C-alpha cells in the first residue's frame, strides 16, 4: 500500500501535467480530510474545560469551542438553546488570537516552505476584472438566496476557482486592493467587540482565550504530523490547520509567500465538516449523556 507522502506527490504531479486540473489538485489534497475527526474530539474535550472554567452550560461551551464561523456556530447554538452572545464572542476571540499569534510566530522563527508560494505575475485588465467582480457578486447573491452562510466569500471563491480551472482570461489584482482588504478584515474583527460586553464577561474571556491557545497548540502538533507524514511544508500546514477564518489565513499565506491554494483547501474542508457534522455530533453526544445518566439513575 503506498505511503501518504507518495500519494500526495503523485496527486500533485498529476495536477501539474493535466491542463485545467492543477488548481483542483491543490485545492483538494487528500491530506485535507485526514485530521477532521481529531478536530471534533479536541473541540469536544476543550468544551468540557470551557464549561467548567467559565461556568457556562455545555451547549454554549460546545459551539464556542468548535473552530467554525461566527455566524454558523451562533445559529447552531441558538437552535440548541445555547447562549449566542457567548458563542459569537468566543468565535471572534478565536480568530483574533489566531491572527495575532500564528503569522507572528511563523515570521519570528523564520519558518518557510520548501516550495514557497509565488503569485503569478498577471497584468491588471480592467475588463476582465469587472467581469470577474460581476460574476462574483452574482454568485454570492444566488448563494445568499439559498441562505448559504459566508456567501460573499464563497461567491468570489467559486468564480475565481472556476475561471482558473477553465483557464479563462484572468486579471491580476493590484497590491493596494489586497492591502485594503486586510485593513477591512481587521476592522471588521475589531468592530465585533463592545466594551460593556467584555467587561460583563470577565470570567468568560480568559477561559475562551486559554481554550483557543490550547486548540492552536493541538492544531500545530497535528500540522507537524501531517506535514511530515504527507511530505508537505511545515509552515503551510501550520497555517492550513490553524483554527482561523478562510479570508484571514489565505491573505496571511499570500503575504508570507506560502501555499495559498493548500491553505484555502484545508479551511474549506474544515468549514464543510463543521457545518455538516457539528449538529449531528452534538445530538449524538447529548444522547450518550442522557443514556449514561438514565442507566446510572436506574
Describe the structure.
This protein is 75% helix and 0% strand. By secondary structure, the protein is mainly α. It has one domain. The longest helix is centred in the last third of the chain and has 38 residues, at 260-297.
Task: Spell out the blueprint of helices and strands.
Blueprint: H1 4-17, H2 22-27, H3 36-54, H4 58-65, H5 70-79, H6 84-109, H7 126-145, H8 151-165, H9 175-191, H10 195-200, H11 204-230, H12 234-241, H13 246-255, H14 260-297
Helix pairs in contact: 3-4, 3-11, 4-5, 4-6, 5-6, 6-11, 7-8, 11-12, 12-14, 13-14
Indicate the multimeric state.
Answer: single chain
Q: Provide the helix percentage.
A: over 70%
Q: Could you say which overall geometry the principal axes of the C-alpha atoms support?
A: globular
Mean of the pLDDT scores?
75
The ordered string of helix (H) and strand (E) elements is HHHHHHHHHHHHHH
Count of helical regions: 14
| Backbone CA Rg | 20 Å
Strand-residue fraction? under 5%
**Whole-number tally of structural domains:** 1
**Computed structural class:** mainly alpha
Largest sheet: none
- The unreliable regions are 1-28
Number of strands: 0
In angstroms, what separates the terminal alpha carbons?
A: 49 Å
